[in-house]
Design goal:
138 residues, alpha/beta, Rossmann fold, three-stranded parallel sheet, 5 strands, G protein activity, Small_GTPase, Ras-related_GTPase, P-loop_NTPase
């Protein structure tokens, strides 16, 4: 949620509840107007839901940004399964590669780091995903 709000408003808000939101946002990229629809789902809610809700979100989306905290190994460890589920649902239909980006958040909290940047890069490489480390706060 922090990255989504930062993207939409350029502001950082540190505390969020476990609520699901859909946002719309226009942005000009390379001279083209792009309309983003962002379905922001906290991982705690995602893990508690039935598969049908997750399947609905997967079918709805054209691309995926999966965010983990570099200070939380569990949030990183769940990524391979999530990516496997996404690829099975999306790529099985039309054989096109689905765009997936893995983002390690909280880069500013390097003193609390539990997942190295190299681990994130290796995971992304092994799963054919993009990779970035960022700080929503910065």
């Amino acid at each position: 949620a922090a990255l989504t709000v930062r993207f939409l408003t350029r502001r950082f808000i540190g505390e969020y509840g476990d609520m699901e939101f859909i946002y719309s946002h226009n942005l000009t990229v390379d001279g083209r107007e792009i309309l983003f629809h962002i379905w922001d789902v906290p991982s705690s809610q995602e893990q508690a839901e039935e598969g049908s809700s997750e399947e609905k979100r997967i079918q709805w989306a054209d691309c995926f940004v999966l965010v983990y905290s570099i200070c939380d190994r569990a949030s990183f460890n769940i990524l391979p399964l999530k990516i496997q589920i996404i690829k099975a649902a999306k790529e099985g239909q039309n054989q096109e590669k689905v765009p997936i980006v893995i983002v390690g958040n909280k880069r500013d909290l390097h003193h609390q780091r539990m997942v190295s940047s190299e681990e994130g890069q290796l995971l992304a490489l092994s799963l054919d995903c993009g990779f970035y480390e960022v700080s929503a706060a910065e």
